[in-house]
Amino acid sequence: MSGSGAAPGPGSGSSPAACRFAHYFVLCGIDADSGLEPDELAVLYQWLEADRHGKSQDAANTTSGENFDQSPLRRTFKSKVLAHYPQNIEWNPFDQDAVNMLCMPKGLSFRTQTDNKDPQFHSFIITREDGSRTYGFVLTFYEEVTSKQICTAMQTLYQMHNAEHYSSIYASSSCSMDSLASSLDEGDTTSLLKLQRYNSYDISRDTLYVSKSICLITPLPFMQACKKFLIQLYKAVTSQQPPPLPLESYIHNILYEVPLPPPGRSLKFYGVYEPVICQRPGPNELPLSDYPLREAFELLGLENLVQVFTCVLLEMQILLYSQDYQRLMTVAEGITTLLFPFQWQHVYVPILPASLLHFLDAPVPYLMGLQSKEGTDRSKLELPQEANLCFVDIDNHFIELPEEFPQFPNKVDFIQELSEVLLQFGIPPEGSLHCSESATKLKNLVLKDLVNDKKNGNVSANSISMYELLKGNETIARLQALAKRTGVTVEKTDLSAPLGEKEKDLKLQCEEAELRDYQLNVQLREVFANRFTQMFADYEAFVIQTAQDMESWLTNREQMQNFDKASFLSDQPEPYLPFLSRFIETQMFATFIDNKIMSQWEEKDPLLRVFDSRIEKIRLYNVRAPTLRTSIYQKCSTLKEAAQSIEQRLMKMDHTAIHPHLLDMKIGQGKYEQGFFPKLQSDVLATGPTNNNRWVSRSATAQRRKERLRQRSEHIGLDNDLREKYMQEARSLGKNLRQPKLSDLSPAVIAQTNWKFVEGLLKECRMKTKRMLVEKMGHEAVELGHGEANITGLEENTLIASLCDLLERIWSHGLQVKQGKSALWSHLIQFQDREEKQEHLAESPVALGPERRKSDCGVMLPTLRVSLIQDMRHIQNMSEIKTDVGRARAWIRLSLEKKLLSQHLKQLLSNQPLTKKLYKRYAFLRCEEEREQFLYHLLSLNAVDYFCFTSVFTTIMIPYRSVIIPIKKLSNAITTSNPWICVSGELGDTGVMQIPKNLLEMTFECQNLGKLTTVQIGHDNSGLLAKWLVDCVMVRNEITGHTYRFPCGRWLGKGIDDGSLERILIGELMTSVADEDLVKQCRTPPQQKSPTTARRLSITSLTGKTAKPSAGQIQEGIGEAVNNIVKHFHKPEKERGSLTLLLCGENGLVAALEQVFHHGFKSARIFHKNVFIWDFIERAVAYFETTDQILDSEDDVLIQKSSCKTFCHYVNAINTAPRNIGKDGKFQIFVCLGTRDRLLPQWIPLLAECPAITRMYEESALLRDRMTVNSLIRILQTIQDFTIVLEGSLIKGVDV
Questions:
Q1: For the PLAT domain, which residue ranges apply (predicted)?
Q2: Which of 1031, 1053, 1024, 901 is closest to 969 using CA atoms?
């Protein structure tokens, strides 16, 4: 887990020690007895590296064995934990290997008197199995080596090294590149002499120094206080006078006598020379965070930091890269502390020791920090997977972001608000590389030393020192020039005289600077927290709480949806959606919501408590909740209060710890020797005082409460492991991997770690596919009204993007050699190369696939061949996609849409020699059983229809193929006239295309039309055999294989049927190729229901056998059709299907109204001529145009008149349109226009009252029943509130 540890410290042990400020004091360095041991971990690391690059291990030692071709002073040697006090604490056991590795991540390093030996401070973090953390703070300094044997060993190593490298050193003037790089890095002048000096150590001439670390391990991250304490210890060791008390007194004091400050209070305790102050936020403030955000912002710059922050929120893989460990910690802790109220749930290793580099293989989200080698640049860094990697080069102010990266909501305003805060504190928002604390390498400390003893600075100890030191300073130079001009003489000694006062001054400023850092920290964090408070102000409304008790909730955790994502998103402002839709899928959001649900039964998670209280506050200020949902940027209003509360705490100390005092020590031990850390007396440091402590009793009650809580949670929480298992799918993976076990790194352990990864990936695949299915199926079940189910386009996109990401992670797990940024695409390319070579060898003419024609209905679309390579070629031909990651994603989307993803990947992996060549034995793709299960999970996605390719790549050119299928028994197969066709889809239409004569099939290419909706088909009625009876038109997208059927079942021709020369056909999607077997089994394809217009044939029916629906069925049909339109508009815009289908499709409004008008219609043939509804409408027009009826009241007359007028106007416009549409087609346009312009409810009563009705309708007809007509009008009025936009093809050429 992450978060900044404001949770009551991880200690929930039974002794008051749980409330101690520090748990351990540790000393690491060289073990004089075991002498110089090369760092085995570093050697293992080279072995792993060599293995990763596929070299042999022996080669590793000679070529990349970084330890041996470097000069001995640059090599890493094994460090040891020399001492730690106390020996152990039960609830926070001392992990010797981890602490040693993190105190000295590079092992021991040696220097001579010519090198820079400034002390270095860094911190680290250890995350335990249960996600709780401990913090370590380390000061590393150099101590002279007194052991003769070690000096001799170093000399021997040099002689060997020089013998090997002699020729290369003197042959080229630049000497070995390695030492060149490192000397450049030290920032010294690079004279050849110096380089040669670097490459030598002479026992008679040089003094050898070795690194040593002092470290405090604490439950809470009090970085500033620990740093001050350690620096004072270090000064006590290096100053000329011995410290006031033996060092044991101070260490004993901080370990046993300094309590943790209670929440909301400050504490003062004593270092060697001056007091140290720390403070802890109160229960309703943001949790403790002591890492200066100022530095993080200076190091990265505001814009970059917000981008990295967004990557962390979306749980990508984040790799921080810097030479300085403290920078890695500062940025990692800084960014995770800004996540409030959320917490990072995955692998979190801010300092990744060199020996753990194989952790970068982890196919899970991680936040890791890698120390960059001196002089290596980013290009040399071989990372196993980069498709989803955010790479942060801290030292060079540079970040690389993953592709397809959504921006943080209101990013511009957000950055503006943050930069205002930064500028108030004098920090440039673009960041500055030079003013960060680590860059100055504890300059302050060194400066103070200069002042104190004038020895450490290597400056002669006379009064001139300060002046000489500042000679190069521009400001001083300008002052001197000014002084000369004004005739003032500057005494050389003047500068050093008032140093005493200056130092006092400096001290105040230092406190001041610290206060400003605290205030800046809290203000920046308030701005971030405020964003989330605004964004999730009403999150509680969408939490789904179904379980009655905790046990049943935990048991069914995996099956249950705990947050109503779709409703939440539909409430959000449009610009937020790309980010939010992905964020609410993350583990950190899931855990946040889980914590919310758990809070019914347990004490609230501290972060959640603070967050909820903030939302309450907002609610009080904004009484009307809806204002929370605006996308208007609302700035943070609590900055002043936050800064003040910190200032008050720091001004007035709430608690002061016991002063360090003399301990009961043996005389003569712990003797002071300047420059050397004394051997501490362990017996006095092993245990604390018995019970002379003010704060023991106070903490006892807190302790008892914690105990109770712990027992209760053990009691309720089933078995803890079980609970973990239920609570988080992904966390269970993260739990074992969050902090790698730092000690044992045998290949067996590595294999076991990888096995956990394999299991984790499989589980994640199961969860993701299940989620995608549930979403789709859920939506399909709900929408019984019409057949086109669609999960929000947005949510679908998010789920598919996360599936793409999962596949990339699976394909990059256990790669032998990385090629290109996308592991999946590079595997596909290699597969393609092999297949194409074999194709060339075979050159088989059959490759095109059999163009089977279905015999039973004459013309049919030839089947598309299923081919992985062909799908790849489609993607390679898309000039819009520029990167491999993009190509891989497009290919996944296409395969998913074609329902071939599982089949394609199976084919890809069936080439075993290739898989073996590309992957190591432990890789996921080489675990047979898991791989099969994985493909099986993907196969389940074939149960639903995705349009994730068509709907995303909207501008590409797509080849289509169309076939016209006539009814041959009753008409000629081919017409003599000139037929034409126009295909329309959700994204556009083809325009009118002439069909080549005597051909029923044609292919054409045009820009992606999206899902197809209508086909207009017609001809010019020329020639002898102009009449044409068309059964249906089929159109197929040749890339995705989606086939649409546009049923017709009517004649095209003058003087037959309704005399139509063109028809508008409404499409329906056919079952896909993959389902063709089903089709074969049931001979009549499921989708070929009676053609859409079969009902209309009931009057002019070709066979006359269709049964007429009853009045009740007709009224039901109308209700259903209107209902579907209302439902359509109640959906979020992105989810709506095709409105054309709801108006003109099989159960659409036009068909339903047609039934109403057909009911009781006298359909006898008058003189062998069919009568149509349109004839009735035309008679009505003729009647209205010739009569001016007399009505009772004036108002009614006007209304009636205007209705009659518009009615006549519309009908005439439809009749005079330059289109050869038949009578039924005209009725369709009439209904569509009437619906669009909200006129139907006015027209229906006119028609019902028109005299022609008595001649043309039976007495029992629905239209002649006053009640029915009124209810019909009422039903139609319900769709008047909606803005209906008609597809162009429906009303082309009608001018109203």
A1: 958-1066
A2: 1031
How far is residue 1039 CA from its own chain's centroid? 30
The whole-number pLDDT of residue 18 equals: 62
| Cβ contacts of 467-475, under 8 Å, gap ≥ 24 | 467/492, 467/495, 467/496, 470/495
Query: Tens of pLDDT along 165-218?
Result: 665 545 544 444 444 344 344 444 444 444 455 556 777 788 888 889 999 999
Block residue for tokens 């929480």:
717
Q: What is the pLDDT of residues 112-149, one digit of tens each?
A: 888 888 898 988 888 877 777 889 999 999 988 888 88
Residue 47 burial (10 A CB sphere; 0-12, 13-18, 19+): middle
Distance CA(699)–CA(684), nearest Å, equals: 24
Cα dihedral 608/610/614/616 (nearest 10):
70
Cα–Cα distance between 191 and 193 in angstroms, integer?
5
- CA nearest neighbour of 82 among 34, 120, 121, 127: 34
Residue 1074 burial by CB count (10 A; 0-12/13-18/19+): exposed, middle or buried? middle
Cβ neighbours of 706 (radius 10 Å): 17
Residue 523: CB partners within 8 Å, gap ≥ 6?
421, 639, 642, 643
Helix (H) or strand (E) holding 101: helix 96-103
If you ran DSSP here, which 8-state letter would residue 911 be given?
Answer: -
Is residue 214 within a helix (H) or strand (E), and if so which, with residue range?
strand 208-218
Closest CA to 1066 of 1089, 1038, 1039: 1089
In sequence order, what are the residues at sequence separation of 6 or more whose Cβ sits closer than 8 angstroms to the Cβ of residue 57? 47, 50, 51
Does the structure show a pLDDT above 50 at 744? no
pTM above 0.70, yes or no: no
Tokens, residue 1140:
């054309």
The helix (run of H) or strand (run of E) holding residue 307 is helix 302-313
**Whether 67 contacts 76, CB under 8 Å:** yes
Contacts of 1053 (CB under 8 A, 6+ apart): 1021, 1026, 1027, 1028, 1059, 1060, 1061
CB 394 within 8 A of CB 328: yes
CA distances from 763 to 244, 664, 732, 756, 777 (A): 60, 59, 10, 11, 21
Task: Return the structure tokens found at 773.
Answer: 């299915």
Q: How far apart are CA 343 and CA 312, in angstroms?
A: 10
Sign of the dihedral defined by the CA atoms of residues 1157, 1160, 1165, 1166, in that order: negative
Largest CA distance in the chain: 133
Task: Quote the DSSP letter at residue 563.
Answer: B
Rounded to 5°, angle at Cα 546 from 541 and 549: 120
For 1007, what's the count of Cα atoms within 13 Å in the CB-facing half-sphere?
10
